[in-house]
Every structure is written in structure tokens, then in C-alpha cells.
Automatic annotation (TrEMBL):
Its main location: membrane. It comes from Thamnophis sirtalis. Belongs to the ATPase gamma chain family. This is ATP synthase F(1) complex subunit gamma, mitochondrial. The gene is ATP5C1. It comes from the Eukaryota.
Length: 161
């Protein structure tokens, strides 16, 4: 059983990690807004391409037997929720299509997505606030056990007199 000091140290380190993560999210948000501002002038080209694709009248064949799923993510971290969501959706679509007897090929673009998709058991990572709650509960239970033990020792000592 972990001591109160161990649990307190771990709880403090997780809270520090949470603070660092929060500041990293703020930096990422600032970078995102800067990239979005820089992207605005290029949107004109996207609107033009969209208009072209809308005018083209190409219909896919009705009985498609082969499917290609393409997942795109980054090569770096700090957006684990996106990697996890993309991987979950790809796995969901893959199971639906293979269940319907279709031939499916999956292409993962980005190191993080490929790593997640290649893992034998895909399990999303636990949330932080959960880790802190569990450790806080563990800390409180251990503290209560220490207090109960001390009370028992005091009562036993008084009864011996």
C-alpha cells in the first residue's frame, strides 16, 4: 500500500503536468489562430475548386465492392484526441464495410495515426481530471486508514493501562 507521502507526491506531479498541458494548449491555440489568419487569403482557391467539383456530374457505381479509407493526422503529438477520433472512425467504418462483405484498404497518413492503427489493442488513453480523482480518492482512503490505525493504537494503549 502506498504511503500518504507517495500519493501526495504523485497527485502534485499530476497537477503540475495538468498545468503544463494547459499552457501547451494555450500555445497551440495561439499558433492555430495565426495559421488560420494566414490561411484566409487561400480560401478563395478552395471555393473555386469546390465550384468546379459541384459542376462535374460524376456518379460512382452503385455496387462498389472495393473501398479505400484514408485517415490523415499529424506526425507530432499534442493532439491526441484528434488522432484517437480519426482512428476510432476508421476502425468503425472498416468493421462496418468488412461486415457487409466489402473489400477494404486502409491508408494512414501521419506517424501518430499509423501507430494507433497498428497497435493490437486500440484503447483510448485515460483522461487526466479521472487520474486526479482516482489519486485523490486513494489519498483520502490511505489517510483515513492511517488515522484509524492511530486511533486503534491510542485506544489499545489506554485499555492496557
Amino acid at each position: 500500500m502506498a504511503t500518504l507521502k507517495d500519493i501526495t507526491r504523485r497527485l502534485k506531479s499530476i497537477k503540475n503536468i495538468q498545468k503544463i498541458t494547459k499552457s501547451m494548449k494555450m500555445v497551440a491555440a495561439a499558433k492555430y489562430s495565426r495559421a488560420e489568419r494566414e490561411l484566409k487569403p487561400a480560401r478563395v482557391y478552395g471555393v473555386g475548386a469546390l465550384a468546379l467539383y459541384e459542376k462535374v456530374d460524376i456518379k460512382p457505381p452503385e455496387d462498389k465492392k472495393k473501398h479505400l479509407l484514408v485517415g490523415v493526422s499529424s506526425d507530432r503529438g499534442l493532439c491526441g484526441a484528434i488522432h484517437t477520433s480519426v482512428a476510432k472512425e476508421i476502425k468503425h467504418q472498416f468493421s462496418n464495410l468488412t461486415g457487409a462483405g466489402k473489400e477494404v484498404m486502409v491508408v494512414g497518413i501521419g506517424d501518430k495515426l499509423r501507430t494507433i492503427l497498428q497497435s493490437p489493442s486500440f484503447v483510448p488513453p485515460p483522461f487526466e481530471a479521472e487520474m486526479i480523482d482516482k489519486l485523490t480518492l486513494r489519498f483520502n482512503r490511505t489517510r483515513q486508514a492511517v488515522i484509524t490505525k492511530e486511533l486503534i493504537e491510542i485506544i489499545s494503549g489506554a485499555a492496557a493501562l
